[in-house]
Amino acid sequence: MVDAIDRALVHALQLDGRAPYSRIGEVLGVSTQTVARRFNRLRAEAGLRVIGLPDPQVAGRSQWLLRLTAAPHAAQDLAGALSRRSDTSWIKLASGGTEIVAIVHTTQTDGNPLLLHDIPRTAGITSVSAHYLLHLYVGGPTAWRGRAKSLTAAQESALRSFPPTRASTGSVRGLNAGDGKLLAGLAADGRATHADLAVRTGWSAATVARRMEELQQSGAIYFDVDIDPVALGFTTSAMLWLSVPPAHLDAVGRALAEHDELGFVAATTGRSNLVAQAVCASPNALHTYLTERVGAIEHITAIETVPVLRTVKAAAPFSAGLVGLPV
């Protein structure tokens, strides 16, 4: 079970994933040792991880939301196989264990092998649909607001009043070929020290620090937080597939983005042109959210609610110890 300090720590990391334990402790009014101990416990018991990721647009990546239907045993095996790929994230078992929802990352040069070759040749799949992500309202650099409700405005301001040192040479417009090892290191551990990242990249620690400052300043990378929502009291999750007339799509997407219950909102291609993930405290809370909040938004012409049974992979790369986290 988590307490107020744990929740405040998660909120602090969402504001600044690389904030030193000492700064977080000062803002929360606890010792540096307490923050480190709480972080390590949440990492062991709730899958807490900070991950450094490239902004998809800056990195020239496209994102697809893949929806697969298969027999229950085949779906579980396939979800496990997909989780081990470097081009996937946010893999979920849904709809009674017969459906897989996953995000697939592609580039202009890779030919989309998963979408074009690997999936069609996989036995046991009864249906496949791929939805191109056109715009993210919540997700990626825009974090889920539902778990960022523990700090006071003054504490948030105090955390933000210590920005990382910025490069003095101006912003950098994108990533280059030499950033690959740095990104791999940050994906494995977004809180890795400059010294550790120097070992991975072959650069000096000073070069690592300077390049990270450049990339953060330009918005080329951001830091996300993975944690099992159940540990925070959110036991019920569902994918919402919505249909909205194109003229009202952006307005509905922006309205949904204000809802704390939604951890992901995106405009997509396909018959359902807006997709979201609801994360609620209970089935009754999900029912209330759908009927009272979503139901109050005009211009939603259809909605399909698909319960999520398990998150097999979140934002971070595959880790054997994390596969199978609930919701």
Can you walk through the features of this model?
The chain is of the alpha+beta class and 327 residues long. 35% of the residues lie in helices and 27% in strands. It is built from twelve helices and eleven strands. The protein has an eight-stranded antiparallel β-barrel. A hairpin with a 4-residue loop joins strand 3 and strand 4. Helix 9 packs across helix 10. It is globular. It starts with a helix and ends with a strand.
Radius of gyration: 20 Å
Low-confidence stretches: 162-172, 319-327
Pattern of helices and strands: HHHEHEHEEHEHHHHEEHEEHEE
Q: What's the multimeric state?
A: single chain
DSSP strand (E) fraction? 25-35%
Compute the number of strand runs: 11
What is the average per-residue confidence, as pLDDT, rounded to a whole number? 87
Largest sheet: 8 strands, antiparallel, barrel
Task: Record the strand order, biggest sheet.
Answer: 2-4-3-10-7-9-8-5
Gap between N and C termini, in Å? Answer: 16 Å
Structural class from helices and strands?
A: alpha+beta
What is the helix fraction of residues, given as a range?
A: 25-40%
* Global geometry: globular
* Count of alpha/pi helices: 12
